[in-house]
Design brief:
Structural class: alpha+beta
Radius of gyration: 18 Å
Number of helices: 3
Shape: elongated
Strand content: 35-45%
Distance between the termini: 41 Å
Number of strands: 13
Number of domains: 2
CATH topology of the largest domain: Nucleoside Triphosphate Pyrophosphohydrolase
Order of helices and strands: EEEEEEEEHEEEEEHH
CATH architecture of the largest domain: Alpha-Beta Complex
Length: about 190
């Protein structure tokens, strides 16, 4: 029955705010009834993908960013993360976002995609969790986007996991660190 759903060709962006859009479309359920469905398009129309980076120094410490999230009304400690550009691999996006947000560089051969997943059933976006090992500060430093105000912290793995597993960790913290721990990186 799951393959009997039919999507109509009437997709419409009914509201947009920044890189988010609320999209409405008609669907026909397996029982033949036409229904309305809405979802959040959480990225650019052409590249609804994002990446989070578990960045590890040669000493095994974790590079994280702290930023204020208006959605929650508080500062959150997260793994560096951001959108994947058109024709950009998850690995390239991870290296770019890490450099832009933290000023750290990852060697090309030190970047591995751990997992891709869809974080919510109401958002049409795919995320990748990437581990970057042997990251080092770059001479150029950080170059965040104009709307990013970030504090960079380097913490030991135990502290990173404490932040991820206590309180209200965001999906940019909890999921990446748990996957990295499971893969033996932490």
């Amino acid at each position: 029955m799951v393959d009997e759903w039919v999507h109509d060709d009437d997709r419409e962006r009914v509201a947009t705010a920044g890189s988010l859009a609320l999209v409405r479309e008609g669907v026909r359920r397996p029982d033949g009834v036409r229904d309305e469905h809405a979802y959040v398009d959480a990225g650019d129309e052409d590249t609804p993908e994002a990446v989070a980076v578990v960045a590890l120094t040669p000493a095994g410490d974790v590079v994280v960013v702290e930023q204020y999230r208006p959605t929650f009304g508080e500062a959150c400690v997260e793994c560096p993360a951001g959108g994947v550009r058109e024709n950009e691999s998850f690995e390239s996006a991870a290296r770019r976002e890490l450099r832009e947000e933290t000023g750290y560089d990852a060697p090309v051969d030190g970047v591995e995609v751990l997992q891709t997943y869809r974080p919510m059933g109401v958002a049409r976006v795919r995320r990748a969790i990437v581990v970057a090992t042997d990251v080092e500060p770059s001479a150029a430093g950080a170059d965040p986007d104009a709307d990013e105000f970030l504090d960079v912290h380097v913490v030991d793995p135990a502290e990173a996991m404490r932040v991820a597993t206590t309180g209200d960790a965001t999906g940019w913290t909890l999921t990446p660190l748990l996957l990295a721990e499971r893969a033996g990186y932490l």
